[in-house]
Amino acid sequence: QVQLVESGGGLVQPGGSLRLDCAASGATLDYYAIGWFRQAPGKEREGVSCIGTTDGTPYYADSVKGRFTISRDGVKGTVYLQLNSLKPEDTAVYYCASDLSPCIPDITIRNIRPKDFSSWGQGTQVTVAS
Fold first, then answer.
1. What are phi and psi of 103, to 5 degrees?
2. What's the CA gap between 71 and 81, in Å, rounded?
3. Beta-bridge mates of residue 6
4. Residue 32 carries which DSSP code?
5. DSSP tally for the chain: helices H, then strands E
């Protein structure tokens, strides 16, 4: 397991943008698949996006497709989640998570599963409101 830290959350108006960062403490993320999840009050934690260790197509949940972009950069493989065209329903605590498993969504739920990721950050709050 690696120690992950998220940052970049905050308060933004509808239609605005944020960039979330996920970095490892004292380690590189180059050899891990990194998933982004979010959890709103009273709701289950849901997958948002995932990027693997190859040049394959990143995964996006249907609810964010076309608005969010995941990328990886830097010597430590820091992973970013660009949030554009934000909506109030995007309000949640956002978590990044890692595992050596690839970004393969579960066929039944048609989304990546939290239980498939072993290392988690502390979360960063994203609030979308006027």
1. -85, 80
2. 7
3. 22
4. S
5. 0, 11
